[in-house]
């Protein structure tokens, strides 16, 4: 398949954009990555995702697909010759989808809250983030059944959903001076995170923590209205 | 021996989506009425993370979150398919399902507010309906294409609950001449024999809706 039949519109800091890229890598599909500029939206983006005007968007044979997890499921359904991303059993699929929804709707919401919170509020969000990680540690035990990933021997839907947040998780740890993934409390997830970040499908698209940290400071300064910090 | 239980709550659109999916597929199930003010041990055991309904229990294995349940039902009982076969169309159906759920605060705000806030909220929900009609439904008969599908079950909120919320809140969000294509879809949806046979009683729903609004508004002022 020619490279430009498959395009991903995205931005390097976005965990959501990482997801389809990891999925395409798992399937060994060549694609063109079209990076959106930080403060402006391209014509192609506005045309391909008129409803939300957000990345990521997958464009396959000129047809756009939007929403990161929906794109991942699409990729799994179209490129069937590559390794499967979703489990084959309907109940296992439901478990992966359940926890992927939890990560997006509850856990990352608490992470975002933690980033912008001040004082007392910060402790409340931090507690929620840590409670969430305890639940995910338990889920990891049940899903992986002793294997390397939530998906078993290979990366699956839930690995992609949760793993895409690891770079931001590391930035949050640095900014807040806390350990979120902890060898004592979440030993399974600590090892899983290392394996996930080292995986061939992930390595090339996972941003370096330092680079993301700088971007995070840039974003924070922008939100306060101040000029970005000088290096 | 297949054992299917559905834990649900009477007026909830989320519970009804699952009921409609099971009924459309002709799956036999036991409906277990939950009381969210007094959650059963069963609910706490089957959905410890969210403690919410609906929860589908299939041969003692629980599945929570309505959209996850809908996909599970579709995969487990594949006859009478409720999702298109084409991957791109499936992705679109899922997109619109997510759209409606993500926008539920906007859908409900007019019902939960008064005065100027309500005016603003009414305008916003009308804008949403415009997007739903023009981009979601488009020229199709159903959100799912030629036949009723999962997306239609999720948009079922509009034919079944929106009117009741309008009446409770004393506002008209959809006037008779508005959104003609959506109105046709609403008729088709309500006329579907399975849907028709599985609707909450409109009088009870209205009474419940009015009472709930009073309680919610009172708690805001307090």
TrEMBL record, chain A:
Major localization listed first in the record, in broad terms: cytoplasm
Protein name as it appears in the record: Glutathione S-transferase
Domain GST N-terminal: 4-83
Example GO biological process: toxin catabolic process
Catalytic reaction annotation: RX + glutathione = an S-substituted glutathione + a halide anion + H(+)
Origin: domain of life: Eukaryota
GO cellular component: a single term: cytosol
Protein source organism: Lithocarpus litseifolius
Gene3D superfamilies found in the cross-reference section: 1.20.1050.10, Glutaredoxin
PROSITE patterns: GST_CTER (PS50405), GST_NTER (PS50404)
GO function terms (MF aspect): glutathione transferase activity
Enzyme Commission code: 2.5.1.18
TrEMBL record, chain B:
Family the entry assigns: Belongs to the GST superfamily.
GO BP term, example: glutathione metabolic process
Upper taxonomic lineage: Eukaryota, Viridiplantae, Streptophyta, Embryophyta, Tracheophyta
Every GST C-terminal domain range: 86-215
Enzyme Commission number, as recorded: 2.5.1.18
InterPro entries: Glutathione-S-Trfase_C-like, Glutathione-S-Trfase_C_sf, Glutathione_S-Trfase, Glutathione_S-Trfase_N, GST_C, GST_C_Tau, Omega/Tau-like, Thioredoxin-like_sf
Domain GST N-terminal: 2-81
Catalytic reaction(s) noted: RX + glutathione = an S-substituted glutathione + a halide anion + H(+)
Keywords: Transferase
Cellular component, GO annotation: cytoplasm
Protein name (record): glutathione transferase
A molecular function (GO) term: glutathione transferase activity
